[in-house]
């Protein structure tokens, strides 16, 4: 073979080898980016500030050996291009201790997701510096024993799509709320900037105010859960018409008044839960438009009047609890159309007449409670 030909072959081989090496290195770097030293240091200092009970997700957080890259640590998610820490999921990690404003957690300014749920932060307050994590889209601090006032700086988190502060409650103590909105920081102040919010859960956060009309102006909520918050006043009926709202839970707000709207044909509502509130009035016949509804709960409310036959249109419903209202008249035979129904409670109302034999159509029904009504005649029994 001539020298010039050998040279050409060798040159092409070297070029191909270099190209292969470049591509292989690029793939590795994009798949496993080395996290930034200041961020790995911040994570380690955060770990050291807490008492940890094994087992825990953060046991792998240490430098040396195969642990140099914090992007490979459990619970840590990095941007595949920049290597910055963008996600931290430390839920149910057996963490104990306090988080204060000097915590290195707040040096992770690129965070888009932070989940500290199901830990024990020993009644510490949520630091005001949480507002500096302006890129957060997901924030979950539920069931983690935070106490005191929710800092007003949380309202600066305008990119949030999911916000959960629920169940920070002293179940083992005197039963009081331990996390609350301050006098000068109302629910309206909190949500005013949350224009991208899809999921909100403030259950057991002491709010003790009305539900602001501004909440019906939010464009994208899919789930609003405000259980036992001390809410009062009139619930804005327009919230029921939010175009993407699927879940509405207002349980145990005993001073919260309201009534049901005329429901739209294309309403996506799946859960309406109103037990132990002051909601009242008649069930609208348009409730039959809620074809996606799976759970309808008016336990111990103040609804009255007849149960509309259109309730039989709710063919997706699996649980219906109308206990302890003032419903009267006959149970409509259309109830036999609810073939997915598993739980039905109609007790403690003023219902009369024979119970419709169409109840026998409900082959999936496992719980039925009818006590303290004025039914006449035998109740049909489904035999398996």
UniProtKB/TrEMBL annotation:
Residues 37-79 form the Leucine-rich repeat-containing N-terminal plant-type domain. Keywords: Glycoprotein, Kinase, Leucine-rich repeat, Membrane, Receptor, Repeat, Signal, Transferase, Transmembrane, Transmembrane helix. It comes from the Eukaryota. GO terms for molecular function: kinase activity. InterPro entries: Leu-rich_rpt, LRR_dom_sf, LRR_N_plant-typ, RLP23-like. This is Leucine-rich receptor-like kinase family protein. Transmembrane segments: none annotated. Coiled coil: none annotated. One of its GO terms (cellular component) is membrane. It comes from Quillaja saponaria (Soap bark tree). It is found in: Membrane. Its main location: membrane. It is a single-pass type I membrane protein.
């Amino acid at each position: 073979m001539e020298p010039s030909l050998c040279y050409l072959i060798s040159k092409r081989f070297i070029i191909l080898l270099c190209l292969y090496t470049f591509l292989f290195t690029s793939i590795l770097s994009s798949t496993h980016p080395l996290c930034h030293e200041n961020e790995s240091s911040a994570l380690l200092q955060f770990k050291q500030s807490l008492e940890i009970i094994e087992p825990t997700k953060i046991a792998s957080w240490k430098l040396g050996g195969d642990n140099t890259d914090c992007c490979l640590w459990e619970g840590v998610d990095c941007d595949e291009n920049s290597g910055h820490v963008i996600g931290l999921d430390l839920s149910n990690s057996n963490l104990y201790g306090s988080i204060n404003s000097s915590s290195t957690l707040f040096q992770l300014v690129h965070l888009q997701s932070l989940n500290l749920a199901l830990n024990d932060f020993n009644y510490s307050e949520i630091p005001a510096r949480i507002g500096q994590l302006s890129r957060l889209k997901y924030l979950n601090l539920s069931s983690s024993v935070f106490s005191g006032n929710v800092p007003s700086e949380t309202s600066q988190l305008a990119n949030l799509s999911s916000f959960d502060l629920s169940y920070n409650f002293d179940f083992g103590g005197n039963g009081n709320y331990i996390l609350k909105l301050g006098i000068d920081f109302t629910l309206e102040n909190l949500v005013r900037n949350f224009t991208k919010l899809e999921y909100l859960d403030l259950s057991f956060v002491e709010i003790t105010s009305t539900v602001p009309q501004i909440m019906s102006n939010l464009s994208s909520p899919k789930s609003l859960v405000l259980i036992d918050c001390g809410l009062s006043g009139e619930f804005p009926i327009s919230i029921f018409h939010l175009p993407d709202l699927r879940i509405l839970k207002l349980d145990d707000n005993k001073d919260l008044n309201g009534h049901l709207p005329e429901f739209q044909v294309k309403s996506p509502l799946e859960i309406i839960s109103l037990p132990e509130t002051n909601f009242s009035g008649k069930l609208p016949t348009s409730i039959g438009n809620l074809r996606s509804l799976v759970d309808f709960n008016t336990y111990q409310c103040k609804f009255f009047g007849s149960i509309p036959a259109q309730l039989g249109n709710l063919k997706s419903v699996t649980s219906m609890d109308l206990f302890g209202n003032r419903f009267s008249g006959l149970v409509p035979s259309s109830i036999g159309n609810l073939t997915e129904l598993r739980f039905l409670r109609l007790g403690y109302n003023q219902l009369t007449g024979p119970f419709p034999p169409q109840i026998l159509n409900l082959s999936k029904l496992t719980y039925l409670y009818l006590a303290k009504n004025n039914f006449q005649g035998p109740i049909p029994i489904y035999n398996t």
